[in-house]
TrEMBL record:
Reactions accelerated catalytically: guanosine(46) in tRNA + S-adenosyl-L-methionine = N(7)-methylguanosine(46) in tRNA + S-adenosyl-L-homocysteine
Molecular function terms from GO: tRNA (guanine(46)-N7)-methyltransferase activity
Entries under PROSITE patterns matching the protein: SAM_MT_TRMB
InterPro entries in the cross-refs: SAM-dependent_MTases_sf (IPR029063), tRNA_(Gua-N-7)_MeTrfase_Trmb (IPR003358), tRNA_methyltr_TrmB_bact (IPR055361)
Binding sites annotated in the UniProt record for substrate: 138, 170, 205-208
Role of this protein: Catalyzes the formation of N(7)-methylguanine at position 46 (m7G46) in tRNA.
Source organism per UniProt: Crenobacter cavernae
EC primary class: transferase
Family: Belongs to the class I-like SAM-binding methyltransferase superfamily. TrmB family.
Domain of life of the source: Bacteria
Name of the featured protein: tRNA (guanine-N(7)-)-methyltransferase
Length: 226
């Protein structure tokens, strides 16, 4: 049974602002007016935000932004909207956007659940990325995991027919939960036989490469909107 408290108070994060270096603060100050989108409780015109019509991909919780910038750089034909609350990560991604001269990446520094509820129109997204969310590996903390039925139901509404939801984790127990939750969502279908092979667009992080060398697993769970 879904946790009623989770249904009422879904949060995409535990607030950890971290220490902002002078460079990261400068990147935020300079980057927000150029590539940032301020949170507002009103529907965002995605085409207007990017200045063009193109497939729109949402990334929830991009961490320090390295993989996000790499994906955007390799796929200029798509637009990417990153949502993150961790200020050092936001600053670092702005720095990368400038260094790579990326025109197809925008950033919202806010809770992803409120962004999804209030800023994204139903059927507006071609894809959603949720890579390596906090596994909350202690059993008593599993209820804090982001991938639960109530949250997935919110995400599915924002996808176009044929759009995809891509989750990745290096925690096997969470991978099992992801597969169970996504399989139970009636508007999603798994085009793969179980877990998916890593798509070419998701780069291997240094952490992941190290884990693979040590024999650790990484699981990609990719479903499509019916």
């Amino acid at each position: 049974m879904e946790n009623p408290a989770f249904q009422r108070h879904i949060k995409s994060f535990v607030l950890r602002q971290g220490h902002l270096s002078p460079g990261q603060q400068r990147a935020i100050d300079e980057g927000m007016p150029r590539w940032g989108i301020e949170y507002r409780a009103e529907v965002l015109d995605l085409d207007a935000a990017f200045g063009r019509e193109a497939p729109k991909i949402l990334e929830i919780g991009f961490g320090m932004g390295g993989a996000t910038a790499e994906i955007a750089a390799h796929h200029p034909e798509r637009d990417y909207l990153g949502v993150e609350v961790h200020s050092p990560g936001v600053g670092n991604l702005f720095k990368l956007i400038g260094e790579k001269s990326l025109s197809n990446l925008r950033v919202i520094r806010h809770d992803a659940v409120e962004v999804i509820d209030n800023m994204l129109a139903d059927g507006s997204l071609d894809g959603i990325h949720l890579f390596f969310p906090d596994p909350w590996h202690k059993k008593r903390h599993n209820k804090r995991r982001l991938i639960q039925r109530a949250f997935v139901a919110k995400l599915v509404k924002k996808l176009k027919t044929g759009g995809y939801l891509h989750c990745a984790t290096d925690w096997e127990d969470y991978a099992l939960q992801m597969m169970e939750v996504l399989s139970a969502e009636p508007l999603l279908v798994n085009p793969h036989d179980g877990y998916a092979p890593r798509p070419e667009y998701r780069p291997l992080t240094k952490f992941e490469q190290r884990g693979i060398r040590l024999g650790h697993g990484v699981w990609d769970v990719i479903f499509e909107r019916r």
